[in-house]
């Protein structure tokens, strides 16, 4: 049975993102909300070394493009344009792996089993059965508001086992 993971503190995520994202990034608590099954964005699954699912993250297109797109060196205009259409850019998705790894580093503490990013997928239909079950009935949930200066803010939803 997986350990129940505490949600990372805002400042830990902010510090982790600062080492990757070229622009200034701020992280705070976001408004509670659900993620629709057909919502555009990315899901990231996190597992322990034993393969137990520890967490699931959903990042909306703004979050993916603002964090991933700036990391990939994309033009601010292209990032803003895609985000205004709720579209995830391919280059933003490709760069989001580093963001997902940073999130994992914030969940791996001396009190929990170490976790790593297992998969990044675009649709809920691509999630594993275990991830869908966690999404439906998490032991804990937190929504973060992630802001990248000069671009705007997006939402990062964390579902914990």
CATH topology: Chemotaxis protein chec
- Beta strand %: 25-35%
**What is the CA-atom radius of gyration, in angstroms?**
14 Å
Largest sheet at a glance? 6 strands, antiparallel
In the CATH hierarchy, the architecture is 3-Layer(aba) Sandwich
Query: What is the general shape?
Result: globular
Q: How many runs of DSSP E, i.e. beta strands?
A: 6
Low confidence ranges: none
| SS field, number of helical segments | 5
End-to-end separation in angstroms reads 9 Å
Q: What's the SSE pattern?
A: HEEEHHHEHEE
Helix residue percentage: 25-40%
Q: Find the structural class using helix and strand composition.
A: alpha+beta
Overall tally of domains: 1
Structure description:
Strand 2 and strand 3 (53-59) form a beta hairpin. This protein has a six-stranded antiparallel sheet with strand order 1-5-6-3-2-4, with helices on both faces. Helix 1 packs across helix 4 (90-107) and helix 2 (61-71) crosses helix 4. The chain is an alpha+beta fold and 161 residues long. It is built from five helices and six strands; from the N terminus they run αβββαααβαββ. It has one domain (10-24, 41-160): 3-Layer(aba) Sandwich (Chemotaxis protein chec).
């Amino acid at each position: 049975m997986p350990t129940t993971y505490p949600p990372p503190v805002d400042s830990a995520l902010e510090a982790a993102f600062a080492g990757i994202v070229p622009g200034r990034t701020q992280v705070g608590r976001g408004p509670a909300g659900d993620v629709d099954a057909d919502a555009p964005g990315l899901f990231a699954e996190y597992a322990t070394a034993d393969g137990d699912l520890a967490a699931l993250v959903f990042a909306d297109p703004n979050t993916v493009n603002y964090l991933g797109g700036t990391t990939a060196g994309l033009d601010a205009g292209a990032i803003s344009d895609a985000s205004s259409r709720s579209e995830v850019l391919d280059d933003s998705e490709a760069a989001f792996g580093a963001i997902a790894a940073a999130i994992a580093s914030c969940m791996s503490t001396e009190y929990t089993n170490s976790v790593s990013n297992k998969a990044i997928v675009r649709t809920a239909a691509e999630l594993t059965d275990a991830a869908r079950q966690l999404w439906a009935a998490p032991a804990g949930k937190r929504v973060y508001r992630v802001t990248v200066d000069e671009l705007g803010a997006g939402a990062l939803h964390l579902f914990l086992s």
